[in-house]
Amino acid sequence: MTKTVRVRFAPSPTGPLHIGGVRTALFNYLFAKKHNGTFILRIEDTDQNRYVEGAEQYIIDALNWCGIPFDEGINKNEKFGPYRQSQRKHLYKAYAEELIASGKAYYAFDTAETLDFHRTEHEAKGKTFIYNWHNRLKLSNSLSLSAEEVKAKLEAGDDYVIRFKSPQDETLHLKDIIRGDIKIDTNILDDKVLFKSDGMPTYHLANIVDDHLMEITHVIRGEEWLPSLALHYQLYEAFGWEKPEFAHLPLILKPTGKGKLSKRDGDKLGFPVFPLQWTDPVTEEVSRGYKEDGYFPEAMINFLAFLGWNPGTEQEIFDLDDLIKAFELERVNKSGARFDPDKIKWFNHHYMQEQNDDELAKTFKKQHAELADIDVNYIALVVSKIKERATFVSDFWELSAYFFEAPSSYDEKATKKAFKDNTAELMTSVSAIINTIDNFSVETLQTEIKGWITANNIGFGQVMMPLRIALVGALQGPDVFDIMYLIGKAETIKRIETLVKTL
Q1: How many CA atoms lie within 13 A of 218 on its CB side?
Q2: Strand partners of residue 338
Q3: What's residue 200's pLDDT?
Q4: Which residues line the annotated binding site for ATP?
Q5: What is the fold of 412-502?
Q6: Among candidate residues 394, 272, 250, the one with its CA nearest the CA of residue 329
Q7: Facing residues of 274 across strands?
Q8: Nearest to 25, CA basis, from 75, 69, 61, 87
Q9: Which of 104, 263, 291, 387 is catalytic?
Q10: Which of 93, 232, 378, 436 is the one with CA 20 to 30 A from 186?
Q11: CATH for 1-74+250-354, among 3.30.300.30, 3.40.50.620, 3.30.930.10, 3.40.1190.20?
Q12: What's the predicted TM-score (pTM) here?
């Protein structure tokens, strides 16, 4: 790749960052890093009516938590700043007026009431109102009015918008890295508004101007922007600028495979759709986040990478460095990718095994008041024994409570299976053996107890099942000898004696 790659993630601060936005940011990040390029964050806040307090910082925090921080953007390497479009407002009108001067755009003075009338009239006839070549000369704009009339309206301060003049009877040939060649008949295109009556540019104009000024080489964005590609192509040509390469990512679909996964689907379907928890500043409604639900960022990134991309191999586990090496836009699919809540849990279980036991122990201790006085080093030893069965840290207590307190009851199904007429006698003998062991270690326990079972020709299940129930309260948990070693000699004997009394 000859040019230095520069890509941008350009969300609007209208609320929390949706998981689809994170996927878009991830693919931009991977592409940039693959080609030793720059990943830029730009905040597209031209629609001030939809601006939500705190959303911008949420976006930054989310990218940082995911481990895909931007290289250039707000308060960071501001080579092409500012990076909020609202702070670049002074730039856009001049570019819009440049298009008017070149005949590529025009002033439109139509009132909202007039446009609503035309829409309603068309709907009554079963048609769709499109403002373009076939009716623009019948409407109130600088193409249909005389120069004097236009001047008078501008001097009088009449409201206006600036529209792009879409060509007639042409065929556009567009290129997309993922979707290939696309042909568009310009007769079906409307004359999009580039500059609004409130003095702010629309997304289309600001987007193109900023991408050009920031020297963006590749525009990697969601499929929902594919209908805008024709206009954006034409704007680049109208300005005489070199176009970036475009790639439109497939939609992320609901778990059913039908329909786009929306911001509202998390509450409906019972899983997060945001990376971090979000509290609405107006309603104070709280939406769940993957971080707070106990997911590891590595799991989320690995999962999102496979929503629309395929490495071409059977490999599923990729750390970020592996993803960067393997990622190719040409291997991104055109069709939508189904969101599978169970699959991200599978990834989280995998990455659980790679977490540091000491760090997991600290998190576990914070979550449970019962552990307040327990040495975190002991908790870490327990975590090392049970985390292979866990998907989240929140699973730890159910899997390990018996390491911290004796069972208060015994599982009924397990006792029916394990307890025989001679169980009390066998457990008393095991307790006596343990009591004689001075070097209390896993190896010694195994040697002494297994040796006694073999020497007396006793079935292992007759001893080991009730012994496990005595220690755990159920037929579950890691190796029995590991449990005995961790809870200690005195506690082990005490639990066995409690079971014998119960029997």
Answers
A1: 27
A2: 253
A3: 87
A4: 263
A5: Arc Repressor Mutant, subunit A (1.10.10)
A6: 250
A7: 289
A8: 69
A9: 263
A10: 93
A11: 3.40.50.620
A12: 0.92
